[in-house]
Structure formats: C-alpha cells, structure tokens
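Saturday, quiet lab. Running sequence design on the structure tokens for the scaffold JK sent over.
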C-alpha cells in the first residue's frame, strides 16, 4: 500500500515500510533514549499526525467554529490507522526540535504547551506531562529538510496561508483557522499560564 505525503504542495509516494521521513513518536522517543536518533541537525519543516480518534477528542474541547472557507483536515492512513494532521512547524535544527517535542519540558515546546492547555489544564505538572507524553507517543512525526532556515520559514508561511488544509493547533501566523478559534486557543494557553 502506498503512503502519500504533502508538504507545501510536494507529494512523495513510497511504500510505508521504506519511509524515512515519517516515524511514530514512540519510535523517536526510543531512539532519543538509546542515542540512536537518525534525524539530522538541519533546518526543515514538519507535520504532526494525530490518530483520528484522539484528534477528534482534542478538537471537541473547543467551542469556536472549526471550519473556514471549506478547509479540511488532512487525513492519511499509516499501517492501517487513520491519522489527521493538526500541526505544522519549522526548525533551524530538526534533531533538537524533535527532542523538545518528544522529551522536553513544556516550556521548550509550543506543541507540548498547547496540548497541556487543552488536555490537562488543571493537572499538576507530573500528571500533565504523563498525559501529553501518552498522546504524543501515539502520533506520527513527518519531516522534510530544507537548505536554509529561510527556506523553512517560506514554506511555513505558504502552508499556514494556503486555502485547502487547516492546522487547528498552530497559533502563530495561522491563517488556516478562523480568528475565533485562534483566540480561544490563545486563551486556553493564557489561562494555564495564570494558574
């Protein structure tokens, strides 16, 4: 079965078993812990894919309208499980970024802070970290290297301004979601900060 990936309009079709640009976070965590991580210290762009059931649970926390101008969530099936893309990001050092997202403290990762604000706003730090880690380990991380940080920034700008797909967990420069949605997400993060 072929797997299809789109980052800034580029499509890669490969057999799932041969994909080197998409891995489960659980495998990435294992690679980080045993120091065998195969992600380069290069700039690039990446996308987080959440299992569809967990993605729908996350999005159910919002009261703001989800859709704007007929945008949709990207969906893919990987090894028999359906996933939805909820977050698009960039980094000047992909190796460091995946470490932050997988193992870092909440303050080191925008995605981890956002997930905590949605999933565990009233939990103590240890419980919140456990819940976020449990979810992240079920996700897929897809990445593509760029030649320069500027190339990555350009791709991020294009992706968060395009008119087809929505990224509901992005805050900064995110034109794929209604302003009410972004305001609610910012408020969730602010409420967590004030506790």
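Result came back. Writing it out in full:
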């Amino acid at each position: 079965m072929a797997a299809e990936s789109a980052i800034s309009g580029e499509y890669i079709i490969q057999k799932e078993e041969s994909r080197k640009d998409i891995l489960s976070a659980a495998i990435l965590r294992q690679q980080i812990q045993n120091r065998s991580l195969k992600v380069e210290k290069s700039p690039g762009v990446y996308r987080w894919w959440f299992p569809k059931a967990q993605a729908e649970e996350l999005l159910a926390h919002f009261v703001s309208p989800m859709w704007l101008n007929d945008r949709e969530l990207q969906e893919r099936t990987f090894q028999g499980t359906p996933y939805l893309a909820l977050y698009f990001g960039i980094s000047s050092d992909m190796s460091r970024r995946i470490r932050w997202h997988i193992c870092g403290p909440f303050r080191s990762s925008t995605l981890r802070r956002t997930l905590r604000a949605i999933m565990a706003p009233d939990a103590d730090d240890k419980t919140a970290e456990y819940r976020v880690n449990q979810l992240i380990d079920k996700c897929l991380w897809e990445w593509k290297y760029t030649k320069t940080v500027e190339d990555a920034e350009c791709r991020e700008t294009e992706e968060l301004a395009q008119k087809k797909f929505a990224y509901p967990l992005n805050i900064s420069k995110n034109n794929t979601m209604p302003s009410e949605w972004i305001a609610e997400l910012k408020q969730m993060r602010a409420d967590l900060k004030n506790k």
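Notes for JK: The first helix runs from residue 25 to 33. Residues 1-18 have pLDDT under 50 and may be disordered. Ask whether to fix the surface positions before the next round.
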